[in-house]
Amino acid sequence: MDDVVSTVRQGERAAPGGRLEVMSRDELAACARWASTFADERKDHRYYELVEDTIQPEFVFRYFAVKDESGTVRAVQPFFIIDQDLLVGMSPRIGAVTAFIRRLWPRFMTMRTLMVGCAAGEGHLDGEHGALGMCAQILAQGLVPQARKLKSRLIVMKEFPARYRSVLQCFVAQGYTRVPSMPMTSLNIDYADFDDYMKRALTSATRKKLRKNFAASTRAEPLEMSVVHDASDVIDEIYPLYLQVYHRSTLHFEKLTKAYFCELGRLMPDKTRFFLWRQGGKIVAFGLCMVQHQDICGEYVGFDYAVALDLHLYHYVTRDIVSWAIANGYKSFRSSALNYDPKLHLRHVLDPIDLYVRHTSPVINFGLKRALPWLEPTRYDKTLPKFPNYKDLWA
Asked: Would you state the pLDDT for residue 251?
């Protein structure tokens, strides 16, 4: 596949006002723009290097240099190439039919895909504020020929926050279809403390349930929380807890490695916080959060399910993280996708992220545009429509 990527440089196709060029990791090191890429996001350029080095070795990771008409690099846009299962997130009934078909046709509804964005998190559009529109136009006009040279039939702008909808409208004009991905959530935590949050934000029924859960935790052997930037010395304890949560999920995205957790704390200690809960000296839960400005974002959790359900660790962990965040001046708690029911009752709101999808064949793309609303995974989640801003997924 590396040989395929290298051929993209031959006969680069220019878009009006600029062009795309593919860069490898070695070439990226000499690009001055890269050091400031995504600097205002919690997952800056260091995170993309980490992901490339530690997870999904079967992916091919590369980077688009978005150049203006003078040849100046105005943005760097990471991408990767995968074999994408188009039926991820479909209802169990359809999944059973798909499994039967794939016994005879292993690659049924699986397509080689060029993904623009992050392999472990939401995507962002690089470029100086005044140049975002230009960079988006160059991407929108240049991705189809690039994908064809990379022998990828499908193109996906992966999980871009809703705030980009205006600037990414040029993709819709180029034949892309915008559909929602499984959304993140956001919780206002601008309160004096957790008790103040419960009193002012939650219903009496939810408060009663939480207090009952917390009481159950206090009747057991005490839990002790600690916060560290680097969890490499406890990786053999926390990684099995991550795997327990991963394997219980009905939807699987990226599978992280031990190296990911170790290197994240080492490379990005300014933005990484590991919350650890010990009972009798043994770690029974952890939460990985990343911080930026006044936001703290819960990325991944791990639980020892031998005790997690009896101790109601999900709510216990949430309370401790939110309490710590409030005490340290954070105003918003964001959370990654899935597990929406408890978030609904805790008064999270949806934080939409979008996919922009098109096929390189205009004929196939015509049919794909009509099929995508039935393939997108949010349609089959029963909790999402209960959120007050559910319509924002499509707005």
From this structure: 72
Same fold, 2-183+352-393 and 185-350: yes
Q: Full-prediction pTM beyond 0.85?
A: yes
Other Cβ atoms closer than 10 A to 240: 12
Q: Are the C-beta atoms of residues 132 and 125 closer than 8 Å to each other?
A: yes
Task: Give bridge partners of residue 149 from the DSSP assignment.
Answer: none
Fold of domain 2-183+352-393: Aminopeptidase (3.40.630)
* More confidently predicted of 16 and 291: 291
Residue 208 has pLDDT above 90, yes or no: yes
Q: Which CATH architecture has domain 185-350?
A: 3-Layer(aba) Sandwich (3.40)
Tens of pLDDT, residue by residue over 350-376, are: 999 999 999 999 999 999 999 888 888
Indicate if the alpha-carbon torsion angle 23, 24, 25, 31 is positive or negative: negative
Instruction: Locate the domains of the chain by residue range.
Output: 2-183+352-393, 185-350
Q: What is residue 252's predicted lDDT score, i.e. its pLDDT?
A: 66
Q: What are phi and psi of 230, to 5 degrees?
A: -125, 120
